[in-house]
Each structure stands twice: as C-alpha cells, then as structure tokens.
C-alpha cells in the first residue's frame, strides 16, 4: 500500500514538474489595446527625430516607463483607420480587406459612390489568437471592448471575458472606475494570479474602452486639465491619464506576482486619431493618411532591449504570428490565409531586420465615407506610399522617409513609381477579393446626404454558430 502511495506521489510529482517546466518554457503575453489614440496621443515620443510624435497635453508616466523598459516602433500601423475592422484583423492575422470588414459605422446613402456591404460578425470559421494559444496550453482572457459580435470572446477561444461588448460598455462606468479601466486591471491581475498558481502560461487581451466616454474621467483628473479651456481636450487628456493609471496597475500586478522576467507586455492603439503639431501627421480617423493608420506600439519582454527603437514598418496583424511563434504554436496550425508575419526577430535583434509576410507591400483599404477624402486605399512599399481616391480616380505619392506629414505629392514627378504601386494595389485587392465602391447611378448632388443607419439584415447568424 505504501509502495502504491509512493508511486502515485511520484507520478503526481512528475506531472507537477512537467507542468512547471511547460509553463516556464512559454512566456506570458499581455496585450493592451487602446481606442482612438493617435500616434502623438501619449507623453512618450514615438519617433526619436519627430517632435510631433509626442503629445503636448498628455501625461502618461506608466507608459513612459514601459517604453524605457522595451522597444518603441516608430512605423507601426493599425490594420484599419477605424476600430472593429482592426479588432477582427488582430484576432485573425488577416487584413480587413480579406475579411470584408472594412468599416465600423453604418454606410452613408446618397453619395457619388455606393459603399460596399460589410460583414459585421466574426465567423465561426475564423481561427483566433485565443484559440491558437489555448491549443498551446495557454489560459486565455479578454477584457473590455470586443465589438466584433460572433457571440462574444467565449465563442472564440477565451476562457474568461466580459461578454459581447461594444462602445456602449464605456458609458456606464464612471468615477471611481471610469470606463471600467480599473475594473479591467483588477480582473486581469486576478487572472494572472490564478493562472500562475495553476502553472499555466496566460494570454490576456485588455481592449480598453478609453478613449471613448472621455467625459467619464475621474473628477480629480479632469480638474488637473481645466487650464486647457477646450472641453474636448480637457476630457481627452484626463481619460488618457486615467488609462495610463490602469496600465500602471497591470504592470504592478506583473511585478508583484514575480512574472516580469517571462511576460511580454504590448501596448498599441486600434486606429490613428490624427497627428499633432510640430511635424505631426496628416489626416485622422477614417482616412488612410498616416494620421488615420499610424499608431503607438510599445513592446516589453524577454530578450527585448530596454529603451530600444524599431523603424521597420509593422502592422497589427503581424501580432498573431508573433504570439504564435513566441508560444511555440506549430506553423502547421496557423491558417495559410493569414497575412501577417512574425516580428520576433525584430524584438530580439535591436529592431533590425525584415518581416516575412505573404507580400512585401502593406495595403490599407477603406472603400467608405467617413473623412473628407471619401472612399480610398493606400499602399506602402519601402518608404514610398501611394493613396488612391475612388471618387476622383486621383492618386497621390509620398516619400515617407522625407515627408512623414504627406505634404509633398510626387505623383506628377514619378509616373513609373505611381504605375508600380497602383498595379500592386490593384493586384492585392483582386487577390483577396476585396470589396470596392461602385458608382451610384441615382446620385444627385442637389439632394442632402442621408444619415447613417444600419441596413436591414445586418450580420446574420453565421458568426453565432458554435465551432464543430
């Protein structure tokens, strides 16, 4: 009997040691995603040589600390200039163009062009970060704004989550827990502790509701910015500081639990929010100018040099293959239709090197009305970027190495470059079967634009089906 007990004890000990080793071999990953935060929306410069890459009115000391401990990406892009297309792209490693989800807001009617109909439910057929990491033994959690339907995070690989939430989730949380910043941080800390006690590596995505409902910022924080006079600036600066405090709580939990040495912490925004002064970016949310798509991205973790920079262009859907490589997910498990490339080599080699994707160019497709530009697409190859405007069949060409603000259109001087990039853009959009705007045969410029509204039959049940 004693022998049997010893055997059982030995077997249990071996399993425990295996679990500890398994957890130690795989890094924890905490991915924090802010909402509507522009490239210059922090007190952290996002480019060492561009003064306008740092916001003048913001105070984000915790994110400053994160940057000092990790790597800043000066040329990071959101997959889309609006939120939900970026969010589904991050989950799947595919571009919004391929996913046929390129806009968040409802379409506008009565315009010169008809916007394409979009899918607004993540399909049960899509394989997500949560599912891939869960298959590699990770405990998975998603807190905050989901905004891609499909039954919510629990239907797509997440053990713990806040449900099928959207923008409405921000407005019900006020001081002392503005837009649920501190509630989310507390839930994340508890999940870290529980996973660590179970000797399981974890993946946590904190999709912060901020900067939505900025008027819900802490009263004490709002009071600090009254000197700005502009009400929108006051509330934006205040909620930004509150968000930074939430980031600080998450970082403190990592340190308190002794997880710093084996945990990657990633911070980025879901779309651009405009540029800023003194060399800032052109355009803003809903446009494919740099101001609409270039975003802050900071990564700290094992093997990442402190206070380092990477100037290689990266895009949000590069994160899925990166997380999979860090977690040891077999390449055979990653869908072949994924478009991103792992940036692990950049992280571990001082930001040097290239990213191997299915294509060398980066394309941003927004065939919709939301900015003054109307439907447009852009393509970046090396330092050259072309923007195509569908309404007018116009192109603009910029050399981002010399003209980050996109003020000097080179299209008339460089017809060969224009042809090369336009041909590549057309080829890419055709290859992923991207949806395009079409001419409106009933367009009447004398009639007012109809307000945005959801078309009947939005979404459907496909995204709600449970995977078999």
Protein structure class: alpha/beta
- The CATH class of the largest domain, by name, is Alpha Beta
Distance between the termini: 45 Å
Q: Please, what is the CATH homologous superfamily of the largest domain? A: Alkaline Phosphatase, subunit A
The fold-level CATH name of the largest domain is Alkaline Phosphatase, subunit A
Principal-axis shape:
globular
Number of helices: 13
User: Order of strands in the sheet with the most strands?
Assistant: 6-5-7-1-8-9-2-10
Largest sheet: 8 strands, mixed
Beta-strand fraction estimate: 5-15%
Number of strands: 16
Could you tell me the mean pLDDT?
91
The radius of gyration is: 23 Å
Helix content: 25-40%
User: Under the CATH scheme, which architecture of the largest domain would be assigned?
Assistant: 3-Layer(aba) Sandwich
Order of helices and strands: HEHEEHHEHEEHHEHHEHEEEHHEEEEHE
């Amino acid at each position: 009997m004693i022998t049997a007990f010893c055997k059982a004890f030995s077997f249990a000990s071996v399993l425990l040691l295996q679990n500890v080793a398994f957890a130690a071999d795989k890094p924890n990953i905490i991915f924090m995603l802010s909402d509507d935060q522009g490239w210059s929306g922090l007190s952290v410069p996002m480019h060492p040589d561009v003064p306008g890459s740092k916001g003048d009115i913001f105070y984000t000391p915790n994110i400053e600390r994160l940057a000092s401990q990790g790597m800043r990406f000066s040329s990071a892009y959101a997959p889309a200039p609006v939120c939900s297309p970026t969010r589904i792209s991050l989950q799947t490693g595919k571009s919004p163009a391929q996913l046929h989800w390129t806009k968040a807001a409802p379409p506008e009617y009565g315009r010169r062009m008809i916007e394409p109909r979009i899918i607004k439910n993540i399909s049960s057929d899509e394989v997500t970060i949560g599912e891939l990491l869960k298959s590699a033994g990770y405990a998975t959690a998603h807190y905050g704004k989901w905004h891609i339907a499909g039954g919510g995070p629990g239907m797509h690989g997440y053990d713990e989550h806040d449900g099928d939430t959207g923008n409405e989730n921000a407005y019900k949380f006020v001081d002392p827990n503005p837009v649920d910043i501190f509630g989310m941080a507390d839930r994340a800390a508890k999940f870290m502790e529980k996973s660590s006690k179970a000797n399981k590596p974890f993946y946590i995505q904190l999709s912060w509701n901020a900067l939505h409902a900025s008027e819900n910022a802490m009263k004490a924080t709002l009071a600090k910015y009254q000197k700005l006079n502009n009400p929108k600036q006051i509330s934006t600066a205040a909620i930004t500081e509150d968000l930074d405090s939430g980031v600080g709580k998450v970082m403190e939990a990592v340190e308190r639990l002794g997880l710093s040495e084996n945990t990657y912490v990633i911070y980025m925004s879901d779309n651009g929010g405009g540029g800023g002064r003194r060399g800032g970016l052109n355009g803003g949310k809903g446009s494919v100018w740099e101001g609409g798509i270039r975003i802050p991205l900071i990564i700290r973790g094992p093997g990442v040099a402190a206070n380092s920079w990477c100037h290689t262009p990266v895009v949000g859907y590069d994160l899925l293959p990166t997380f999979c490589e860090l977690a040891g997910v077999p390449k055979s498990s990653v869908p072949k239709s994924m478009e991103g490339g792992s940036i692990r080599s950049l992280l571990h080699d001082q930001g040097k090197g290239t990213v191997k994707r299915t294509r060398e160019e980066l394309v941003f497709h927004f065939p919709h009305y939301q900015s003054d530009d109307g439907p447009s697409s852009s393509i970046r190859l090396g330092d050259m970027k072309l923007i195509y405007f569908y309404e007018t069949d116009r192109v603009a060409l910029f050399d981002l190495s010399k003209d980050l603000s996109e003020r000097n259109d080179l299209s008339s001087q460089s017809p060969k470059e224009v042809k090369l990039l336009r041909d590549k853009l057309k080829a890419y959009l055709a290859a992923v079967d991207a949806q395009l705007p079409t001419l409106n045969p009933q367009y009447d410029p004398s009639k007012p634009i109809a307000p945005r509204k959801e078309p009947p039959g939005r979404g459907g049940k496909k995204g709600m089906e449970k995977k078999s």
